[in-house]
Amino acid sequence: MSDLLLQQKNDLLKQLISVMNTTIKLDNILRYILDLINMVTTAEASVIMTKEVLEGENLTVKAVAGELKKTLVGKEWPMSKGLISEAYTTAKEKIVNKPSAEPGYSPDINTFLNITVSTAMVIPLNSDGRMVGALEVINKKSGLTFQPDDMELAMVLAEQAAALLGQAAAVKSTEARIQRFNALLGVAKEIAQLDDLHSLLLRIMSAAKKVMRAEASSLFLVDEKTNELYIENAQGDVGEQISQIRLPIGRGVAGWVAQKGKPDLVPDAYQDSRFNPEFDKKTGFRTKSIVCVPLEFKGRTTGVIQIINSMDKEAFEEEDVDYMVALAGQAAVAIENSRLLKENKELFLNVVMSLVKLIDSRYKYFAGHSVRVATYASLTARMMGLTGDTVERVQISAFLHDIGRLQIPERVLLKPGPLAPEEIKVVRMQPLIGAKFVQGIKQLGYAVEAILGHMEHYNGQGYPRGLKGEDIPLFGRIIGLCNAFDAMCSERPYRQPMEMNAARGKISTMAGSQFDPNVVKAFIAVYDKGLIKR
To answer: What is the reported pTM?
Structure first.
């Protein structure tokens, strides 16, 4: 290397350091680097393109200088053609003084850059072994050709551009890690608050796909009876297509993880002997990289979570496994808690149903009454826009609305004629007796007001407290109407049952008097859909 060339290189670095001391904005520094390259190589223009989105097929214009317009910044150039793309994919620099003779040359670059490329130099931008972009120097002035000295000077500055882009990518990666960590904390907090298993699994898998920037994610649960994995939830374009897959424990990547209870990283699926490519062949999906981690609770593997294909890099890395293990740990606990809660709810509901059967089986006139009222009430509640646990609470409250009947004397309940004033007082004690009974059960606290309110009338003429309008608890208003409808349609010792359509009509006429008009509207809508059956 000549002393002159060495001096020029040192001067360039000094000028660049001087500029970097006055600005920290990457775009400004890159543009200045290109200006320096144009100056020392006497070029008309230069451009830096970077790979902004790893899963994409384009390079993005990051900086321009010389005769190129600034409006080019941000535009995309296909990575499959052109000399600059060739430099990026081959990691080799090249002087091209007759572009049209080069196999990789694309005349479309002239239109894209709005300049005719007659001579060029292309240089890959490599930072610590990672390709971050490529640089193209265009048209040496006065019709001259680029020489090796021009390449040497340009590469000095290209190395600095590559280092800066690498640092920016590292900072971006760190920020992404922080965001991912915060996102995982947020997910952990959310799933800890969910008790509906379906909603919980949907949230976990949506989070896994989004937070890990994966093309697809799937959650397998263990079927202990068949010793297989089955897909409980799948996210991504092929989610529905894989929903019926069952995998023997020990088979495939997911089966291996379930058997061993250890997380696994597969950088290249087609190089892993456990991977079965048949699914890809059927769907057209291309599996590249996989992270699969077990769902473990108290030393027992209950399932696995799998994510496929990173959208930010060629393959998943070990740190991705760590994030997934953290997510799986939270998910396993939440899933187990949800299962236990579901089992407790089912046990509790069975106890309630046994109690209901005891209430309704005492006399033939009330057989099935509480179950029907609960069905009507839950349908009406849904029609009113109530959902989830709220509808469940309406239903359970309706199951128990007549529990106070157990302490009403038989002579009063089965009297074939009109009740005496004292007997009416006894009957009107039923909501108070029922509420007092339920009040002692912590899990049924929400049912107390519903039981107390189901005999109140919207116009204030009901009992036991004479509440009016919306002072009557909503559950009580819903159950009260459904109770009245079923009573109208049921045989009693003192009268024959009313025909269902006649009872529907009577309910309609009582909107605003005995019943809440909004509840009436919802009940009639349910009835007219044919959902009210005896």
So the answer is: 0.47
